[in-house]
Design a protein that fits this description.
The structure is a homodimer of 316-residue chains. The first copy, chain A, is of the alpha/beta class. The first copy, chain A, folds into two domains: 2-166 and 212-303, Ribonuclease Z/Hydroxyacylglutathione hydrolase-like (Metallo-beta-lactamase, Chain A); 172-204, no CATH class. The first copy, chain A, contains ten helices and 17 strands. In chain A, a hairpin with a 2-residue loop joins β11 and β12. Chain A is globular. The relative contact order of chain A is 0.14. Chains A and B meet through α1, α3 and α4 of A and α1, α3 and α4 of B.
């Protein structure tokens, strides 16, 4: 189960009624932040999400409307007794830019690990020190898998997909057949091999059928390129930029490397997602909901995002 | 005449109800910004002050709550067809920090001139290209004179005083006595020596008594050191930090190198200012106005600042 909060639904310039691009994922009390536009820490206070337990920050790209909240947030976290390390994931150049943004805050009381342009999937485990990021290894069990895709924007830009794994079913019949002691059931179900009373017990001695987890994907800022549908395929929730509501703005969308609501809805449809949440509205788009029909004509399960929108996604 | 807008009255961490340290001075349609905490550009939009005509940005110091709005503001100005150069004034290290903050915005369509630690007064003239900053030269006339003072904070910090000069009175008797042609009166009153019909006319041929201008001073973040009263002496308006309202917070104020309302009021009194505007309230100070009496007991003309406070100062 995980809980998302759309902290900011604006793109480009900030306006008084809309914070800039930012989304918070809460997983078992620990947090992943995607993008951090100016004012993100204020949005967190306004929406009472907390900020001390953010372990991972995923940046789509290095344009100001997606990152200028970072120095303020990290400084505030430092002033709030945060001690556990934070991992920042982003495009090439992220390390240099973060270093620049933090130039006036020479000391942070926690480590910053920066992963640039991960071309392999990353795995996350929730341990005592918060969410830990490692290279994905399919022979091991992981709680969340993060994968990325190169998007098509005016600067290098990454899309993100998060897959929250669900443990396979526990098979009582197999456990009884192999006489597995009750006290090691949980460890085996977590795919651990256990030595107990001098006997070796394998996970397969208790595991039943695989069960699908939860997938959410985050696509901004980009044109609707052909690699996106496979990447977002089957997502329970696609969070997708819809910079322009009016279909007439298609030329602007092409020029500025963004999408219209209609184009985002087409991706959602071809990608066979369950629901799409539109966000990253142009500052000139005063009331995005009046263009909702442009998306709904293509894809019915469209939500027009707003600052403070929340949703809980659970295992089926 | 000039018009000020308090954009943000908060210090330390931003809170949803208060923007961070920032003040805008409007002089003949051109603007001087003092400090630029995160969210300053949003405050400008909310208060409809405009931002394209900011020519000078004075930074008190390089703590995040005074500067993290800078990259967003400068980027937005660049995206808004701003072309005239901007001068940033600050402590030593300002150039390095601004460069770092702008690392992700490699191109701005205007020049940035940075003046670090000016130990002499600076002079400002309003010309076609906006407010121009030069070294102060007492033999020339200037519209605004900026002077700075070293404050006592946990990092190097500058206080600012702005003196808006008023032209001396025009003396009709002298103009008649020296037979000064009417068409050159204005240039002479502006302290220009004029050659007209092969004769040299000096400003003293039309100038009467000197008239006092307008002085405003800006003091944050600091302890109330003994050099401040002379620096702020006679200000029409002192904008002064009052991080803590409760007199009981004096030990916190000493430790964190800030002031209580009472200490700020004592400065205002000894500095013989006309009025003091308190600002830079701690994020823990929910309702600053309930501590107003702590300042008023010392100095009656105290204003408790709030985001959006405006005041027009005119020549007497």
């Amino acid at each position: 189960m995980l809980h998302i909060t759309l902290l900011g639904s604006g793109g480009g310039m900030p306006i008084p009624t809309r914070f800039l691009s930012s989304l918070l994922i809460n997983y078992q009390g620990r947090k992943i932040l995607i993008d951090c536009g100016e004012g993100t820490q204020v949005a967190m206070r306004k929406m009472n999400t907390g900020f001390k337990s953010i372990d991972i920050i995923c940046l789509t790209h290095l344009h100001g409307d997606h990152i200028f909240g970072l120095p303020g947030l990290l400084t505030t976290m430092g002033n709030s007794e945060r001690r556990e390390p934070i991992t920042i994931i982003g495009t090439e150049g992220t390390s240099e830019v973060v270093k620049g943004l933090m130039r006036s805050t020479p000391y942070l009381p926690f480590d910053l690990a920066i992963i640039e342009n991960p071309n392999k999937a990353l795995a996350i485990m929730n341990s005592a020190g918060g969410l830990q990021v490692k290279e994905y290894d399919k022979s091991q069990s992981h709680e969340i898998i993060i994968s990325t895709i190169e998007l098509e924007h005016s600067s290098p830009c990454l899309g993100y997909a998060f897959h929250i794994a669900r443990k396979p079913k526990f098979c009582m019949e197999k456990a009884a057949l192999y006489k597995v002691p009750k006290e090691i059931w949980r460890r085996l179900q977590n795919k651990e091999t256990v030595i107990h009373d001098d006997k070796i017990y394998e996970p397969d001695m208790v595991l039943g059928e695989e069960r699908s987890g939860i997938k959410i994907s985050f696509i901004t800022d980009t044109r609707p390129i052909e690699t996106i549908p496979a990447f977002i395929m089957g997502s329970d929730l696609l969070i997708c930029e819809g910079t322009y509501g009016d279909n007439e703005d298609i030329e602007k969308a092409k020029k500025n490397k963004h999408m219209t609501f209609k184009e985002a809805a087409e991706l959602a449809k071809v990608g066979n997602v369950k629901e799409v949440l539109l966000t990253h509205f142009s500052s000139a788009l005063d009331k995005p909901e009046i263009y909702k029909y442009n998306a709904e004509e293509i894809f019915n399960k469209t939500i027009i995002g707003y600052d403070g929108f929340t949703k809980t996604l659970s295992f089926k």
